[in-house]
Amino acid sequence: MYKISFFSDGFYAAGPVCNRTWDGWLCWDDTEAGFTSEQYCPDYFQDFDPSELVTKICSDNGHWFLHPESNRTWTNYTRCNEHTNEGRMTAMNLFYLALIGHGLSLTSLLISLGIFFYFKSLSCQRITLHKNLFFSFVLNSVITIIWLTAVANNQELVQRNPTSCKVSQFIHLYLFGCNYFWMLCEGIYLHTLIVVAVFAEKQHLMWYYLLGWGFPLIPASIHAIARSYYYNDNCWISSNTSLLYIIHGPICAALLVNLFFLLNIVRVLITKLKVTHQAESSLYMKAVRATLILVPLLGIQYVLLPYKPEGRVSSEIYDYIMHILMHYQVRLSTIICELVTLAHI
């Protein structure tokens, strides 16, 4: 079709033009022959990336491009879900990465707990705290594996949105918090033992049980209430909500407090090494060294990488780093703890 066209340089010209058309998903304006029209992918499809472009070619003869196989007019939507397909592959890789990591962690944790319970010479308050910490890891790994396999990987269940899947997410976030607050208990114990109590032998563990098992119920409950009112998505599966700071905020605070305790412990020990017995100081230093190793391993992802970047590639790299740190750090920590414990036997 020939039509008078107005170009961006201000001149009018006559030539073949492809008529405006509706391809079923998008509307296309009149386009000059030999040009390719572009617009953003529609945002009403879940697997389409609205930041990518759709293209439609206007041939030199003034007709829209015909696909050679179907011999029908064709619009190129392939780029719309290209990155979405890549995202699916990334999600599957992260899924199996998490499953393997938690499986390996469970093995190491059970071995560590077996060592703690088998050797009666290891019965002391510090080992009791280790037992509770590792038991919280066991529970968290079990519920995470259940969550990943039964909920996150089950689209039918997510679509049905039963209450049970939200309850499992609540338990998952609660146990996630327990992990870090039991690490805080380890730091508080050593700080009280060395800095406050001046090498006192016994402490009341009830307060540690309340902090390690009880306190995480508060942010988990607040998150559940806030989620049900302000971001009540199916199974609470989405991580694209600032409400998760209700969970992550106390965890970051616990890590910072723990870091302060441990730095203060090291400072006090250094000043007391000259006036205390070497054997006693050496024993405490070994305990501090073990905990100093554990804390950065268990909290490094939140301290170094608190915010997820916006870019697609950088976001994908961030996800891989976070999953490796989150799901494999427990195994590494238990191996270190086993070595330190066996050295004391």
From TrEMBL:
Transmembrane parts of this sequence: 94-119, 131-152, 180-200, 207-230, 242-266, 287-305
Boundaries of every G-protein coupled receptors family 2 profile domain copy: 18-84, 94-341
GO biological process, one term: angiogenesis
Annotated InterPro entries: GPCR_2, GPCR_2-like_7TM, GPCR_2_calcitonin_rcpt, GPCR_2_calcitonin_rcpt_fam, GPCR_2_extracell_dom_sf, GPCR_2_extracellular_dom, GPCR_2_secretin-like, GPCR_2_secretin-like_CS
Its membrane topology: Multi-pass membrane protein
Keywords: Cell membrane, Disulfide bond, G-protein coupled receptor, Glycoprotein, Membrane, Receptor, Signal, Transducer, Transmembrane, Transmembrane helix
Keyword DNA-binding carried by entry: no
A Gene Ontology term for the protein's cellular component: plasma membrane
GO molecular function: adrenomedullin receptor activity; calcitonin gene-related peptide receptor activity; calcitonin receptor activity
Compartments, record wording: Cell membrane
Keyword Translocase: no
Family: Belongs to the G-protein coupled receptor 2 family.
Known partners and oligomeric status: Heterodimer of CALCR and RAMP1, RAMP2 or RAMP3; the receptor complexes function as AMYR1, AMYR2 and AMYR3 receptors, respectively, and respond to amylin/IAPP, calcitonin/CT and CGRP1 ligands. Interacts with GPRASP2.
Function of the protein: May function as G protein-coupled receptor for calcitonin-gene-related peptides and adrenomedullin. Specificity may be modulated by accessory proteins. May activate cAMP-dependent pathway. G protein-coupled receptor activated by ligand peptides amylin (IAPP), calcitonin (CT/CALCA) and calcitonin gene-related peptide type 1 (CGRP1/CALCA). CALCR interacts with receptor-activity-modifying proteins RAMP1, 2 and 3 to form receptor complexes AMYR1, 2 and 3, respectively. IAPP, CT and CGRP1 activate CALCR and AMYRs with distinct modes of receptor activation resulting in specific phenotypes. Ligand binding causes a conformation change that triggers signaling via guanine nucleotide-binding proteins (G proteins) and modulates the activity of downstream effectors.
Stated name of the protein: Calcitonin gene-related peptide type 1 receptor
